[in-house]
Amino acid sequence: ALLENNALITGNVTNSGTLTSNGANIVGDIDNTGSYVITDGDNTNDITGATGTVTIQGNTTNTGVINQDSISIANGATFVASTMDDIATANGIDNAGTLEMQSGTNTNNISGNTGALKVTGDVTNDSGVSINQGTIEISTLGTLTAYASDLTTVDGISNTGALQLNDGTNANAITGTGSLTIIGDVTNTGA
Length: 191
Fold this sequence. Notes:
Order of helices and strands: EEEEEEEEEEEEEEEEEEEEEEEEEEEE
Radius of gyration: 17 Å
C-alpha cells in the first residue's frame, strides 16, 4: 500500500507499505517495517522496525531515535543527525547526498562514493565501522575520532577542526588547517 501524506498526522503510525511525508507532518512514533520516505522537514519521532527502510529526499534534521534496516540519503538531500547515538541500522547508511553528524558515536557502515560526510561536533566512529564517501569534511568546531583503515574517500578529507586517527592505514589525502592526532600505529599511503 502507498500513502502520500500532505497533512498533519498526530499519534503513533504503523507502516508496512510505503509512507511518503514531510517529516514535520507526523507527530508520533512510527513502527516502520516497510518504506518511509521523508520528503523534507524535521523528524522528531522514534522510527523503529528492524526490517524497515528510511529514505531522505530533502533537507531533514533528526532528533528522534531511528532503528531500521537501512537509511538512504538521495543526491541533493541533506540529513542532519543531532546525535549518531540515536541511529542504528542493520545494513548501514547509503549516502548520495550530504550526511551531517553533530555528535555521538557512529555504529553504522556508511557507503556512497558521491556522498559528502560533514562532521560539525564531537563524533567517534566505532572500530570496524566503514565510512566510504566522496568527501569527508570536518568543520572548525568538528572533531572526528576513527580508526584510519575505516575511512575511505574519493576526494579526501578536508579538516579545519580536529581529526584523531587510531591504528590502521590512512589512504586518504588530508588537507586543511585543522589538527591531526595519531594514536597508535598508523601507516600513511594517502596522496
